[in-house]
Each structure stands twice: as C-alpha cells, then as structure tokens.
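Weekly sync notes, structure subgroup
Attendees: PM, AL, DS (notes)

Item 1: joint prediction request from the bench team. They want all two components modeled as one assembly rather than separately. Inputs as received:
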Amino acid sequence: MIWANQVVQGVLLGGYYALLASGLSLMFGVMRIINLAHGDLAVLGAFLVLVMTDHGVSAFVALAAVLPAMAAVGWLLQRTLLERGLRSGALVPLLTTFGLAIVIQNLLFEKFGANVRSLGPGIGTLAYDSWTITTQIYVAKLAVLIFGVAVALLLGLQLVLARTPLGRALRATAEDPDTAELVGINSRAVYAFAAAIAVATVALAGAFYGMRTTFAPYDGPSQLIFAFEAVVIGGLGSLWGTLLGGIVLGVSQNMGQQIGQQFFNNSEWFLPAGHIVFLAVLAGRLVVAEVAARGGVRTVLGQSA
Amino acid sequence: MTLLAVEHLDARHGLLQAVREVSLEVSAGGTLALVGANGAGKTTLLRAIAGAHRPAAGRIVFEGADITGVPAYRRAGMGIALVPEGRHLFSELTVEENLLVARSSGRRGQWTVDSVVEAFPMLGPLRKKRARTLSGGEQQATAIGRALMTNPKLLLLDEVSLGLAPVAVEAVYRCLRTLIEGGATILLVEQDLARAMNVASRIACMLEGRIVLEGDAGELTREQVTEAYFGLRRAGGNGGSA
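Output from the run, pasted for the record:
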C-alpha cells in the first residue's frame, strides 16, 4: 500500500512538472528557442503573486492579475530580445536567455533578499487539506487541483493547436516560418503569441510551486532542470508526451525516495532517482537512434554475431 | 493596365549579385514567362517580388503603390502569391490544413477548399492526408492550391513542373490554362522553353541577373530565345570564339 501511495503522489507531482514544462516545450517546438530563464520566470511569477498577497489580495485573485501580466512579459521578451537573437542563429537566443536568468535572479534577490517565502499562508486550508482514499493513501487537495489544471491546460493547448486557425498558423510557422509568411501569416506575431502563452503557463506553474512549498530568488535553475527532464523523457514537441514525462519523473522520484528509506536507510534518494531515470531514458533514445541509423536491430545483431 | 512594375531591381546573396538592374512590367490579365539558365536570377527575382528576399536596390510597384519595404505576409494580403520552387508544403499538416492556412492572408473570393479540389480533382481523396505522404504531382497541386486560397491578383509560379512525372506536368498545366483563360495574372519561371512559349503571352529571358530579351510570345522565335538563353548573341559579338 505504501508503494501504491508513492505512485499516486508521484502522478500528482507529475502534473506540476508537466505544467512547468509545457511552456518550455512550446517555445522550443515553435521557435527552436531553449529558454534557460524558464525556471526563473516561474519564480518571478510566484514573487509577483506574493507582492499582491502581502497587500491583502487573495492568492487566486492575484494569480488572475499576474497571468496576463506575465503573458505581456513573454510577448515583450520575444519582440525585443529573442527575435533579434533568432536572426543570428540558435546560439544567441540560448545565451540571451542565460543572461536573462541571471538578471531575474539578481533583481529578485535585490528586491526580496535571500529569505524563503511561501504563498501557502495566503490560500487558507487548501494548503494542508486532503482527501482520504484509504487508511494509508491521502491526497492533498492542492496537488489534485494542480494536476487537474495541468491536464486542462494541456488539453486546451492541444485543442487550440489541432482545431483552430491560430493553431494551424502556429504549426505552419513552427515548420517553415518563411513559407508561412508567403501565405499571409505574420510569423513574428505568431512567435510573440507563443512566447506569451509559454511565459503565462510557467508563471501559473510558479504560483502553484509557491503554494505547495517555499521559494527563494535562486530557485529557478532547479525548476528548469525538472522541466527539462519532463520534456526530454516525454519526447520533444508533444504535449501529451510532456504530461507523461512529468508523471514518469514524479513517480521515479517518489519511488526512489521510498526505496532509499526502506532498504538503505537513506532519505536523500528523491532527486537522484529522477535524474537516473531521465539519464536512462536519454541513453535508451540514443541507442535506439544509433541502431536505426545502422540499419535496424537485425543488421546490428547480425554484425556482432 | 500595369499590375506589377519592377524598376531597376538589384538583389544579392551575400557577395553574389543574383539580380542586376532588372526592370519589367506585368499587365493585368497577362502571363509573363521568365526563362533562363540555372543561376540566371529568376528565383531570386520572384522571391523579391513576393517579399521573401529583400532587394539591395530598386523598387517594386504593385497596383501603383511602392511595396518594396512591405513584409511578405502583408503582400499576401494585397494579392501577391508565390508558389515557391520545391513546393515547401507544411509537411506535418494535412492537405486541407495546408489550404486552410492560406486564409491567414484575409483574402476571400472564388477560391475555397472546395473550388481548389474541384480544379485539382486528384486532391479530393487526399484532403485528410499529411502533405509529406503525397507524390510530387499531388504536392505541386496542393502548393498551387494553397497559393490560390489567398485569392491572388498576381500569381508567381516558380518551376512548377520541376521533378514531376510528365503526366503530372500535363495536369498542372491544364489547370494553369484554365486560370489564364479566367483572367488571372501570372508570372511564371519555367525551364521548358516550348511550354513557356506555349502558355505565356510574353517572354522575358534572363542571363546572369539581367533581362537580355523581352517580347510577345507570338513575335519571338525559338531561335531568338535560345540565343538569349545561352548568351550566344553576346559571345558572337566578341568574335564567336565560344
């Protein structure tokens, strides 16, 4: 039953990772930009909500105001910084977002100091309420809420991409921006729209992060790692893959934690377990690609025999 | 009436000057065929007119307005459509989506998904198929259909018969003839001289970035165009040493 509980908690945690990762996946899928400031934008979103809750605004009302503001930040970021970089190749946007990450971290540190904060106090009993499934499995209401929001968001994004004219324009621009322009698509506007959505979703993830636990100005990079791992495990450019990747990561971490505690009397297996599964999936992918490049399993086995 | 005027246009790829001081006019309802050897600058000229290549000097005037600085997506909205060389379909989108995506130009008219499929009956059963699974001829039909979906006033066609089976080329040209009879204005690049002279009302021949010969298709002989095509006349002027 303990193991079932770890799986349930891991799946719910995976919802948070998917929410965190969807914007990263979107920006890479559409613009081929790897946004190294992704985690820091999440933390920035959490701090913006915090500023408003400190002034007595309820956390969810604050979130409703922060999301459009962060969408505007994404739009501006694309139009002012990233768009210029894109014209000079793939490396420049990467370096730009690396620099941006450092700027965000230090501005947050300058303004808020090194103390850890939490949005937990601002959401009342939701911070600790839970449902009892069996005597040994409890699920936190907040974790279920985050998982539900993640699934709804991915479903919504998937529907927009698959069914709407805007989604068609996004997919066309992602594949070939020059040709998209020839059929009347303003590819720069499409890019800015994708960046706006991506930054708004990561701010949402950041706010949930702040409700689940504590956060501080330099927390961005660790969140970026989780987002990367979820995206890579799930496969680049697939939104459902991102959800699956998040769940695999969350379950691996929880199972690793349990294994470490139960058999090795060590309670620090949570993070390494996630990293190991991520590396195993990555290595597996490379082997599969290598085998395919050499002409399939039979050819490779035949050579070694 | 002049629909498109290109004035003293220069276009470069880095240090290479692909188009040199080109001037040409296309009148409404006319069909101008650009012929010339590989590397003569035809594709670059077409891309500059469509807005996909920024010219180094000169002007492009469409319906009396200078559009030299107008971005490509707004030119599509003004009624200029390019069928690019190599088709450039959105390979992960279905045939229908490839057509529908061109509605982004905001131009509505006689061309809809249904009327495109009517003009290219071979696309009928393929509407839900991804573009990358299509044959060359089917892809070319989709690419032309996609350009038509913007209901253009000026259609630019870059080597639409390149790499197609003869049967597919026939089908594409049958459709072009219907378009021309319907009053469309077309500027096309074509390697096949006979086909170009057959379908176009005017011919312009490019050599090393310049237009070296231009005239009504009926008044030019095949020999005149061939000479201009290979630059023989100029070589002859130098004493015929070539």
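Discussion: Residues 2-237 of chain B form a domain with the Rossmann fold fold (CATH 3.40.50.300).
Action: AL to compare against the crosslinking data before next sync.
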